[in-house]
TrEMBL record:
GO terms for molecular function: small ribosomal subunit rRNA binding; structural constituent of ribosome. Residues 87-110 are annotated as: Disordered. The lineage of its organism: Eukaryota, Viridiplantae, Streptophyta, Embryophyta, Tracheophyta. The gene is rps18. Belongs to the bacterial ribosomal protein bS18 family. This is Small ribosomal subunit protein bS18c. It comes from Allotropa virgata. Its main location: plastid.
Amino acid sequence: MDKEKYKRPLRKAKKAFRKHSPLIQSGDTIDYRNIRLISRFISQQGKILPRRARKLTLKQQRLITIAIKQARILSLLPFYNNERLFQMKRTQKPPKNKKKNFKIRKNNKK
């Protein structure tokens, strides 16, 4: 059989659709102490933004995630960014004044 009939047409190479992030400059260090840089990658609720939202490389996203977690542990960044939610969690419930009355039963043995 003729092999030329069964050849597949050449496909174009896929182009990378992600551009490098302009948020991180070449001189910036991704570190837990660089709060100004790290805070750009946190949402209003305090969540870490996904990689596709800020167009980061895999290595940059990993470094930023580690830096954010370290900054949270060292209390440089809050775990919850929403103050109302933070206040709701901090408030304590008022003590209940209800006391249960238990009757003591005596077993009448014959």
